[in-house]
Structures are given as C-alpha cells and as structure tokens.
DNA sequence: TTATTTAATTGTCATAAAGACAACAATATG
DNA sequence: CATATTGTTGTCTTTATGACAATTAAATAA
C-alpha cells in the first residue's frame, strides 16, 4: 500500500468533507479514494471516518490522526521544497506579512531595493495587525510583536517596541505638562485601536497597575492619521518610538516623561520580531528575505 | 512512486551506510533500493547521496533532508501506533526510565501495584542518571530532573527536588554545628557523583556564588550507601528531601540549616518531572502509566 | 410512504509500479 | 593483477492502483 498516497487522500476527504469532491481534486475516480482510505483504516485497525452516504464525519480517533497527519504532510512538503529549491537562485512568490504601522513606515520603503536585488522574486505583501498563521501555508516571513508561536518557528528580535507618550508643543503649551500620571485623566487621548480594542495607558505604582487613560478625542487603527492629530495638538498619543520617524527631531512632537513610566502593556519585553519557519531558511527566497530584512531592520 | 517507501529506503541506507545492508533489513534486493532512492533524487532534482561503490555518503542537502525525514518518519510511526492501540486494553512493553535514587526509593516500590492493575503490561525499567532520548524510540515514560527538551514532550512536575544538608546526631555532637557556610570547609563531605562529576556545595551571598564544599570522605553514585555513611557519622551530605525517607523522622539524621541556604545548583527551580511524548498519551499503556504515576507520586 | 437524487462502495479489467534475479561496472583489498 | 564486494542496469514477474460500470445506502421531495 502506498501509505503516503492514502494519507493524502484521507486528508483531502476530511478537508472537503466528501469523497467525490476530494477525488475531483486529484482527478481520480472516487472509488480510488474509497479503497485507499479503507486500506488505511484496515492497516490501522480503526475506523477513521463515519460514512453515511450523504456525509463524511471524522471519528474521535480519526480527528486525532487527521491533525497529526496534516502536520506530517505539511512538514514533508516543506522539506521537499527545501531540497528542490536548494542552490537555485532566489525566485518565486514570497509572502511577507507585517504589522500595519511598521510595514508602512519601515518595511515598504525597503522593498524597492529588495526587488532590485532579487528581480525574480515576486513579492506578496500583506499588512495586518491580525496574526497570520505562519504555521500553515500562508506566509513565508512575518513581522510581529510578541514571540514565536512554537519551536519550529524562529523569531529574530528586530528592535525594541517601546511605547512613549508624545504631544505637540502647542498642546503642551495650552494644556500644561502633566506632572503626575493621574493628571493624564484630565487630558485628551489619541488611541491606536488594535484588533483587541484601543490600547489603554497603564502605569505600575508600587506593584499595582493603574489605568490612567485620558478621555479619547481620536481612535483609529491608522497610525499616520493619529500622528497628524497629535501634531495638530489634538491630544496625547502613546506610540512606538520607531513610528515617530523624525517628528521628535523636528520638534513636531515632544516626548512626555513620567516616573514611573507610562506603558501600554504589562509585559515589559515588548519588541518587534521577524518570524519564519526554521525549516524553510534554506529555501533561497526565504533566506534572501530574512537576511536582507534583518540586515536593514535590526537595531539594538 | 511510493514516496514514503522511498523515504524509508533512503533513511535506512543512510543509517546503515550501505544499500546492501539496508536492503537486507527490508528483505528486498539492493536493486530495489537503488531504484527507489534514484527516483526520489530525480523527483527532488538533487543528489542526496554520493555513491562510490564501496561507500555511501550524504551530500550537504542530503544531510539536511535526512534529518527532517527521520523526524517525519518517527512522527508518523507514533501517530500510527496511537491509532492502532486506540481503545485497546493497556498492553505491551512499557519502558520506564528514572533517576537512580528516585527510582529505587519511590518508583520501584509502586510497580508491584501497577503490575497487579495492568497485568498485560510488561515493564522494562531502567534506572540511570544519564538522560535518555525520549525523543527517539527509547523510552515511553521518563522521570528526570530539569525541564522538557522540546515542545512535543510534556513535563509534569511531580515534586520539589530541594537538596538539604544533613548529618547524623553523633557527627554533629563530635564536630559541632557549623554556624556559617564557610565553616563547612573544615568539615567532612559526602558527595553524590552525577555523570557530570560530584555535586559541589554552593551558597549565594550578596549575589555572588561561593563553593563551600568540605573535603570529601565519600563519593558515590549510590544514594543508599551514601546515606549509610552519613548515618554512621562519616560526614555531612546534601541530599534531596524525598530521598531521606524516614531518616529525619527517626532521628537517624538531622537537617542543618544555613542562612543563606546551602544549595547544589544555581538554578532555584529544581524539581522532579515526569516526561512523555504528548502524542503518545493516547496509547493505552502510556496513559495508564502516566496517570498512575502522577496519582501516586505527585506532591505539592 | 414512495420516488428520486446523490454519494459511497464493490466488481472486473487494464495499466503502471515495484520486486526478483541475473549480468555488469566500479573500486577497494590481498 | 586477481578477487571480492558493492551498487547499477536489463528483463521478467508480481502486485497494486486507476478506470468504468454496477450496486447499495441515505437524504430530499412528491
């Protein structure tokens, strides 16, 4: 029995929920799948699917087996691609996913140069603050806050992701410099909205965390627009230092300092990471992208 | 092409270093392996092996592929076993590995009861302080100090592994109670020898670690014998609290206390863990053993 | 309830892939 | 230089998979 073929058949039947549809994808008659899956079940001595003419359902053990088989097939796919593309020129489609703000300000400006270096790589860039499934077939390289989701993914720390409070000089002149974090509650707040809601302003005092957010005058998931609002004196904004570009240098915005520090997360280790599947580092296009991006983006 | 068969052939050729020997293990002619591996190489578009009539060597990419393939084959093997043994009675050979001291004192006394509960499980117990490769085919359940080696292994904390200094009342009467850790250097030491050498006595004072070991009067990897030495007043011993059984209760040994505490490792989180492959928890014999051992050994 | 439709299984034959065995080529070893 | 060992190649046989038609089972509609 060609076990691997049986596994691919089984897997596809589960995915499509039908022998007929799965058979169509392999361009073989459904009877082939029926037999191969039956062989597989016989060799395992357990039923994987409950067939009821009109629908196909996983048994309990089938569910467990399916998940593990999916993983195995995926890994094998990746290993094969690694070998196949070994010592070839970087080429093919490369999918990069990045945080929106980071992508707009730092990643996109680099990509022209990357394209010039590797003209045969077709870039597919998606900016989203939702986390994409690097574990599956979605993305080759991802830039994210937070850590590696599992041990097969390598995370390279690109830079600090420290959020600092800023406001325009005009705003400060008008509203005064807040001396104490609790004074902030009398100010105006400009908030970035993540997929999990706006980010509050937090402060740890004597081991306890306090929410010291000001009333909101602007909320958006668009960093650029929020920065404009801040520059025009609409309020105080907490933003990653890297996102402020030259606003601080030119004096468009000034940093406000507090003791203890104002934060947006209880996690002190906020950073931006570049993520990729370890296994795939040898795929030329992936290696080219990782090496390029780390060289250009890593700051410490 | 039966890709999986090709992978098994390839893998075995690498393991045995020879087409002929590998073929013998599958009971097929060497020509079959030759053809299958050649097919595989053709489909991958890369050479995996350097053949030189008298010897077979991996190419660079072959080495990488081989490692990944080994892992995939192993996982598939495990998934298949999980399904095959699903909803069967706990049966078959169960390999347990444990730290020597822990095994002798706590594990072995439990096993008669386990055998009575699951008479169809054939136990294969090996006691060793070397860490066994849970990742490969060696062991079903392991009891170890330290942590899980990777994300596929689950580690259940069984109990604290705090080492405390003890001596017999006669020894203390004769030599006096050491008040300060540095006084220990004038005492007599009884040491357990791990595979990495005897365990020194350490103490952290003002952030700095000091080795305050006494000259050795006895060194062994046999806990029981060392305890006998200590009871007979030969010296001071650092031993895990669990290993002392009722010696403290009966007054055979007394605990010495120091401030700051005397330790055998800079790692404060020493504990005993039960380890098993997550994937294999559904194999009845593994589940039976894990559940039984955790129920009997877990203390907090 | 019964007819109809759709999906999965089973039977039979054709085809393709892997194994068996012998012959051959290449390279160490004596 | 001869011999033994190892891997490859040629040819035939065996086995397993695919193709297509026929059959069975279940869900939907009359």
Q: What does this 3D model show about the protein?
A:
The structure is a homodimer of 300-residue chains. Chain A contains nine helices and 16 strands. Chain A is an alpha/beta fold and 300 residues long. In chain A, strand 3 (92-98), helix 5 and strand 4 form a beta-alpha-beta unit. In chain A, the strands form four sheets. In chain A, strands 7, 8, 9, 12, 13 and 14 form a six-stranded mixed sheet that branches. A five-stranded mixed sheet of chain A has the order 4-3-5-16-6. Chain A has a three-stranded antiparallel sheet with strand order 11-10-15, with no helix packed on it. The mean pLDDT of chain A is 88. In chain A, helix 1 crosses helix 2 (19-26). Chain A is 38% helix and 26% strand. At the A-B interface, helix 1 and helix 4 of A face helix 1 and helix 4 of B. Chain A binds a DNA duplex (30 and 30 nucleotides) through residues 1-2, 5, 18-20, 28-36, 38, 51-56.
């Amino acid at each position: 029995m060609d076990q691997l073929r049986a596994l691919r058949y089984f897997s596809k039947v589960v995915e499509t929920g039908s022998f007929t549809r799965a058979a169509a994808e392999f361009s073989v008659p459904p009877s082939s799948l029926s037999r191969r899956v039956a062989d597989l079940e016989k060799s395992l001595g357990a039923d994987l699917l409950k067939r009821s003419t009109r629908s196909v359902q996983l048994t309990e053990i089938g569910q467990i087996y399916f998940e593990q088989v999916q993983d195995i097939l995926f890994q094998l796919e990746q290993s094969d691609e690694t070998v196949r593309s070994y010592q070839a020129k970087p080429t093919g489609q490369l999918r990069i996913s990045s945080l929106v703000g980071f992508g707009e300000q730092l990643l996109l400006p680099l990509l022209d140069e990357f394209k010039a270096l590797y003209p045969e790589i077709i870039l597919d860039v998606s900016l989203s603050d939702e986390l994409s499934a690097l574990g599956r077939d979605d993305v080759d390289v991802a830039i994210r806050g937070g850590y590696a989701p599992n041990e097969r993914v390598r995370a390279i720390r690109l830079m600090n992701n420290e959020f600092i409070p800023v406001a325009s000089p005009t705003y400060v002149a008008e509203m005064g410099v807040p001396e104490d974090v609790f004074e902030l509650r009398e100010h105006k707040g400009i908030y970035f909205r993540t997929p999990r809601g706006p980010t509050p302003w937090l402060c740890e005092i004597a081991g306890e965390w306090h929410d010291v957010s000001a009333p909101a005058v602007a909320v958006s998931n668009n960093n650029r627009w929020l920065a404009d609002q801040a520059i025009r004196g609409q309020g105080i904004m907490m933003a990653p230092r890297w996102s402020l570009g030259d606003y601080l240098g030119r004096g468009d915005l000034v940093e406000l300092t507090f003791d203890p520090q104002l934060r947006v997360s209880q996690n002190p280790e906020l950073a931006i990471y570049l993520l990729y599947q370890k296994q795939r580092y040898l795929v030329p296009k992936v290696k080219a992208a990782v090496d390029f991006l780390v060289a250009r983006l890593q700051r410490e």
